[in-house]
Each structure stands twice: as structure tokens, then as C-alpha cells.
Prior knowledge:
The structure holds two protein chains of two kinds.
Chain A: E1 4-7, E2 10-13, E3 19-25, E4 31-37, E5 43-50, E6 53-57, E7 64-70, E8 73-78, E9 87-94, E10 104-105, E11 109-113
Parallel strand pairs in A: 2-11
Antiparallel strand pairs in A: 1-3, 3-8, 4-5, 4-9, 5-6, 7-8, 9-10, 9-11
Chain B: E1 9-13, E2 18-23, E3 32-38, E4 45-50, E5 53-56, E6 61-64, E7 70-75, E8 84-91, E9 106-111
Parallel strand pairs in B: 1-9
Antiparallel strand pairs in B: 2-7, 3-4, 3-8, 5-6, 6-7, 8-9
Amino acid sequence: DTAVSQTPKYLVTQMGNDKSIKCEQNLGHDTMYWYKQDSKKFLKIMFSYNNKELIINETVPNRFSPKSPDKAHLNLHINSLELGDSAVYFCASSQDLSLYNEQFFGPGTRLTVL
Amino acid sequence: LAKTTQPISMDSYEGQEVNITCSHNNIATNDYITWYQQFPSQGPRFIIQGYKTKVTNEVASLFIPADRKSSTLSLPRVSLSDTAVYYCLVGDRAGTASKLTFGTGTRLQVTL
């Protein structure tokens, strides 16, 4: 009965490959997010979706493309992976865009690009 | 933009009270102040939220002065399991990236 789940938990791949990370929430929330946490633990927003509509698209390379097939899912596709993409990626969801409502985070996906 | 500033790290002994202060000089009228806790290898989780004065729950207290330009997260009688990174987040609506800036947080290390 995990609220926000991500797969895979670990992802090791070679430079230049294309990979996807999946995220699902069973909380009935309207808003979902992708965050990147680098080696220095800086947690930075990448994307946010509200009712399947893109709300925030931070200064992220266009090799990163989120896809929201429905409100419960927000997947992250990454093309032509680079060494600098190595990080932990967190998916999160909240009831709506109001920050009065807490964000629920997934367990994270540790991506290692070799 | 309500940018936040927190100490990078703090150390405490078990059983002590820990106070972590977050500065947010440009806080807007509608902004809430929310604190999250992150354990190693886990995603952040909500601890407490407030708008003004004092808020207390079973985990922590949050003190917010009248001008709201800062806030203090208070953890009573910390234990080893409170070792984590604590993030202060200020905003009203997650419509812009600046409202979702967690930053580097404050790394709290609790020892015996």
C-alpha cells in the first residue's frame, strides 16, 4: 500500500543510453513532481504536473522528458545519458498545487551513469 | 521570491533539545512555512507546517515570530534516530520552481 512508488530503485547504465524511471501514486492526488538530488544533497525541482498538465519545467536539458499518461503516473524519460545525470531522482505528489498540502515523496531512484 | 537560508550542519547529543532556524526575509503574505525531514536513502517527509506564532505536533514545534522573516524548528530531546537532513520550504502555491526550492537543508548529527 505504498503511497508513492518508483521503479527501479537503482539504475546503472552507460553513457549515451536512454532510460526511464516510473512513478505511481495511489493517493488520488492531482499534482506530481520530479526532483533531482545531487551528490551534495541539493534537492532541486525538475518538473511538476497538475492534472496531467505541465506546470513547471525547470532549466533541465531537453534530454529529460516527463510523461503523464494519467493523474496517478508521472514517468521520466532520459535520452543520451551523461555522467552528470548521476544522482538520486525523487518523485513526489500532493493533493494539489497548494503548498499547504504536504508533498509525499517516493523512495528515490539512484541513477549511476558510467 | 522567498529564498531560505539554513545552517549547513548541526551537532547534538542525545536527549538535548535542538533548534534549527531558517531565514526567509522575503516571505510573502500568503506563504506557509513547511519543514521536511530526510533520512539517508529515503525521500523527504513532512514534519510540521505553520503560518504564524507557534505550532506543535507529536514530533516537533515550529516557532514563527511576528514578522515571519524566520522560523525555528524545535526538536525536543533528540535521539540517534533524529539524525537526518531538515529542509525549510516557504511558499503558497507550487506554481513556480522558486517555491519548490529545498536547497541543501541542515544536516543534524545526533550522538551519544
